[in-house]
Each structure stands twice: as C-alpha cells, then as structure tokens.
Amino acid sequence: MIQLNKRGEGIMLMKRKSLIFMMVLALLSVLVYPQSWAQSIEEMSIEEIEAVERNSAFTFLRDVIGIDIEAYNMSYKFVTDRNSRPELKVFPKHATDAILLLLKEENNVMEISVEFVDGMLEWFWVLDCQGKPKMRFQHSSDLINDARIFLERYEKVFNASYCSKMLPFLKEITTLENSTVEKNGLAFKVCVDIEDNYIGFSWRHVVNGLKSPSIFSFSISTKDGLLLHFYDGWNLWKIGSSEIKVSRDEAINIALKVAESYIEGLGAKVVKITATLDLYNDEITERGGDLFILFPRWFIELYFDKTYGNGDKITGYDVCVWADTGEAFWHGPEAFYSSNPELIQNPVGEPNIDIWTIAALIIATLIITLLATPIIAEKRAKNH
Amino acid sequence: MGLIVGKYPYILVLNFLFLSLTFVSPALAVTRAIYILETRHGISDSYELQLHQEVAEYIKQLCLEVGYTHLPWYPAEKEWYMYAAWGGSSDQALVWTIGHGYYDPPPVYGPVPIEERYRYYIYGDDHQQILDSWIYNYTVIRRVRFVYMWHCFQGDKIWVSSSYGEHGMPWAWMHTKDLSSNGYKNPDNNGYVFIGFYNEAPYLRKPLGGKDEAGRNFVKNFYYAIFKRGYNVKLALDHAAKTTFNINDGSNQFERCIFYTGYSTPSGTAYMKVYGDGNYDPT
Residue A299 class from Cβ within 10 Å (0-12 exposed, 13-18 middle, 19+ buried)? Predict the structure, then answer.
C-alpha cells in the first residue's frame, strides 16, 4: 500500500525522478487519451504500468464520475497478474491489473476497484460506500440525464468515440422502467432494481438474432446518483463468425454420433434432447486465439432415462457443436457429486469418536513423563 | 506429579510440545492455513479428477503468494478431516473440500424430500464415513472460519435435530447453528462462513449457465479474488460470477448467476448456499 495524503497525494513520499516521471504522465493523461496507452503498455515496466493505470483510475474517478478524490485520505493497492503463470491469470493470454482504492474522510469511506485488461480500463466497481460520497459535480434528480452526461464525459475524457453509438439509446428513454430496445446491431437494456436501489444500462452485440454478453454497461444508485459499476468491453469482445451453417437437426445428429460409444457403454437410453443456439467464447481451446472472440454454438443436452454410473450420478451427456463449422468441440457426461442411489451404503451407526485416541495420547505422554523423570533426575545428580 | 513438574518445569513444556506435535506437526508455527481436501472416493470420471487436481493446485499456488500455508491432501483420509476441523495450529483456517456427498435416510427409491433428510456425510479416500456430528467434535476451538464444500447436499440445512441427534454440515464445521441463512444477502458479521450445495453439486466439468466447465472456472475465479485481490467472500462470489458467466452489468453478480438462481438436478432445483458472514475477509 502506498499512502497518499490529503491534497499532497503522496508526492512528498516519492523521489524527484519519480516526481518528474509522474508529472509527465499526468500531463499525458490530459493531452493523450488513456485508452491509447494500451498500444505501448507492453513495453513498460510493472512500475510504469502501475503509474499509468493509477493516473487513468484517478482521471476516471475525478473527471468522469466526479468523486472529489482530493477531499479524501487515499491509499491503494496495485494487483497484477502480468508475472503470473498463464494458468494463474484471470484471462489466459491477457494481462489483468487492478487498482484497489481506499478513500477515507472521517466517517465517509469508499472502497473502489478499477480494473484493466491489457492496459485498457475495463471495470469500475464500488466495493463499499459508507457515509456520503464527496462529489465534485452535483447530481440532478433526473437519473436518465445523469446517465447521458456520464456517457458524454467518458467519451470525451477517454476518447471513447464508440459511445456515440450508445448515446442515442439513452436519449430515447423517457421513463425509468425495465425495457429492451434492439437496433443497429445493438441490444440495449434498462434494468431498474428496486431492491438494491440502482438503475442499470447495458449494451450487447446482436448478430443473426444472437446476443453477445454485455459489452458496455453501467449502473447508477437511485439513492444518491453515484456510479456503482462500469464496464467497457467494447474493444475486447469480437464477433468471430455469425454464419449459421448447421441446422438444429444436424447439430443433434452430430451430438448423438459423438456420444454414441459413451451411451452404449453405459447401456443408457436417450429420452429427451434439447438444443440451444448462442454466441459463445470458448475459454478452453480459445478458438480464434482469444477467449473474447465469439462464435455461434449449438449446445446439445441428451437426457438419459435414469441415473447411471458406478459411483457417479450420470444423468445425461452434453455436446457443444460450432454452428458455423459443425465441429463438436466439447463433450462430456452430465454428472453430479452424489452416488447412484443403489450404490449408497446405509451407514452403520455413529462412527467411533476419536476422543479415546486423544485420551490414549495424553495417558501415553504422562507415562513417558513419569518414566523419563527419574532418568533425567539421575543424570542431573551425576552432573552435580 | 506436581512435585515433579515443579522441580523440572521443562518437562511440562516438553509435554506440551509433544501433545502439540501430535496434532499440529505439519503446520507448526502457522497462523493462517488452507486445507485442501480432495476426495476421489466413488468418482470414475478421469477428466473430472484431472480438474480436481487442477483446482487444488491453483488454490495452492494462490495461497502461497499471500502467506497461507496450504495442505493439499490426496488421498484425503478421514484423519485429515479431523485435522482440518481442528484447524491445526493456525489462528484462521480455511477449508476447500470436494467429492461425493450423501444424506440419511438413503435415497434408495428416489430423492428424499429435504424435510426428511436428517444427517449428512461424505467419505474419505480410505472409504471411511465422515459424518457431520463427527466433524463437530473437532471444531470446538472454532479456528475454521470458512469452509467451501463442493459436495452434494452438504448445504441443505444449517442444522437439524432428530432422534439421531444434532446434524448439519454448516453447524458441524462452524460449531454453531447461529449462522445467517443467506450470508450473501444478509451477512451476520460473525466472521464464520460456509458455502455448500442445496441438493446436488455439479461436476466441475459440467456446462452450466451457458459455460463449459462452469464449476472449475467459478472456483478458480473465486479463489483468485480471495487471495489476489483480497476481497471478502461476498465480493469474491460477485467477481467469480462476473468472470465465469460474463455478467458484465449491474451489481450483485452472484445473485444473478445460475449457482444462486438454481439449476436442475435429479433431486430438484439445486443452489449454492452461503451461510453466515459473507463479509468475512480471509486475507
């Protein structure tokens, strides 16, 4: 943790060289837009990346959300998986960093996480908020207007020109209620969560009627207008293919063929089949070389007539088929962590409570003590 | 005896050390530990077992980075469960355990309604039964703060009383029945949390919520958030739900993922249940 003081922001704690470096970066944060750093970020040291992303996080908090960070005592932790082995990364082949901020001012406390993927601001999250947030901008009572202003500010400060594709959706909303609109290849959703007091806005890609995961979203507290979360995956998610060349029946036939030997081995009978078409990012084989690339997929579930397995509870078989190529890229049994009922043995009474083992060990210790004492005493007497 | 001890006080110390070593030798001088208990009893799927190991290794690597002692045990025999329940010599212990789970009365003629289930157990790799009430005997010091049981049924109920006595895995591990029934939405702030499954737990490889190997990814993302980010259990569940299922919008992602909303199993709809204090921060 680096301690940052009120207004001083930790500058006093840094050496002169670092200070100059920081000032240059601060200047860059105004002149050059933070998202463009991603291009050169791979050449930087971890310390440089930390400085760049910290500035980016501060810019986002101060100039986009409007949190008066100077009014708080601030500390932060930088977490990165850049040096981790691929299997220990959040997203293999991608670098994920997080700036975890603690903002304190008397009884007002905010805990915030700002996350970056490959140096691009991806996720902002208010982890905890106690008291009243100190804000630079006054929020209006019109949450839709606040949402528009937020998006415009983000577009301007972070040079996120793609926001212009999302702004028209916000401009069309007139009332705060759950709604979904689809146009220009985007699906826009407004979600009013009364229980948790927030309103959420999200956008997804739509191709051939198939929707991607949310590629851009944010939510605002209905209590005080504070931005609670923000996600920008616009530049991360890609559509690898949208062609549906494999029909539902063809996909089912492929699945049955793939599962044939397994089903025969069990002696099972398929009594029900479901097939779902979606846009899928394959995290295991990373089709297209990246887990953020989406392809159309048939997900086939074959349900058995009863539960099978020698110890496992196997109820069916699942097969994933690419809808554009017809390749079955994943398959396996549908199983649960509970044995087949016929194989469960009825427990025979309560097990022996090992309190007796403990008692035996205590007695053994005491016996050793009693036996050892005279020997030690004798030795001592000899020494004296 | 008193005379002996008075004359040779170091004998008392030696006694103490001997007794301590008997129970806590592998984790001597450890203040925080995670006990990884991977039970393969009754699992024939080789790929699933491969994922067991992968997840155990992942948790081990992560906890090493933050100074947790890890004790990954395979085969996870009954005595290791006793050791884990005791909490070793650590001040705070976490437990990750995976394998088959059972309840009484045995569901010979199909699933037994949840109201009629009265006693819960798993098996160690030495084929010995590990009953909830047996675990309870060893959690008296309450060093175990967080247990994540990836077994069927072990999160059915916090506690149940029957003619066979008191039962329930959350009660057994946390050594109390005073646990919030929804530690995610309403944490009780008592510093003890149990995660388990109501009805069947899925295989780690099973596709759920549109994701292959949903369990594997969820658990890995959960422990990443705990150990790397230092999140509390609730936030780590949200992080895991966001990252695993691409729930990139709104708040409370866990509440909107399939483990919370439920999925179909032979015994009915199953859920991942969080009991106790979701605000508990292991790091």
Answer: buried
| Inter-chain touch B42–A339, beta carbons under 8 Å | yes
Spatial neighbors of A52 by CB under 8 A, at least 6 apart, are: A25, A34, A37, A41, A44, A119
Cβ-Cβ contacts under 8 Å, A336 against chain B: 152, 200-203, 206, 265-266
User: What are B257's two structure tokens?
Assistant: 């993922």
- B228 contact A CB<8A: yes
Q: At residue A197, what is the residue type?
A: N
Output the furthest CA–CA distance in chain A (Å, rounded).
99
The architecture (CATH level 2) of B31-276 comes to 3-Layer(aba) Sandwich (3.40)
CA torsion angle A349 A354 A355 A359 (round to 10):
140
Q: Do B19 and A365 touch (CB under 8 A)?
A: yes
The residue ranges of every structural domain in chain B are 1-25, 31-276
CA distance B130 to B101: 10
Q: What is the pLDDT of residue A220?
A: 93
Which uninterrupted H or E stretch holds A156? helix A143-157
Confidence (pTM): 0.82
Strand pairing partners for A74?
A: A4, A103
A284 neighbourhood in chain B, CB within 8 Å: 212-213
Give CA–CA dist B239/A256, Å, rounded: 36
Q: Are A334 and B265 within 8 A, CB to CB?
A: no
Q: What is the mean pLDDT of residues A128-152?
A: 90
CB contacts, 8 Å: A276 with chain B: 210
pLDDT at position B160 is 95
User: Quick check: A191 and B22 CB within 8 A?
Assistant: no
Compute the average pLDDT of residues A199-203: 95
Could you read off the pLDDT of A59-77 as tens digits, one per residue? 999 999 999 999 999 999 9
Average confidence (pLDDT) over A264-285: 91
Global ipTM? 0.81
- Map out the domains of chain A as residue ranges: 1-136, 138-236, 248-343
Pairwise CA distance, residues B271 & A352, whole Å: 32
Contact A298, B207 (CB under 8 A): no
How much is the average pLDDT of B253-276?
Answer: 95
At B62, give phi and psi (nearest 5°).
-65, -45
Interface membership of B100 toward A (CB under 8 Å): yes
Yes or no: say if B28 and B89 are a contact pair by the CB < 8 Å rule. Answer: yes
Q: What is the pLDDT of residue B111?
A: 86
Taking 90 as the threshold, does the pLDDT of residue A78 lie above it?
Answer: yes
Q: What is the pLDDT of residues B167-190, one digit of tens each?
A: 999 999 999 999 999 999 999 999
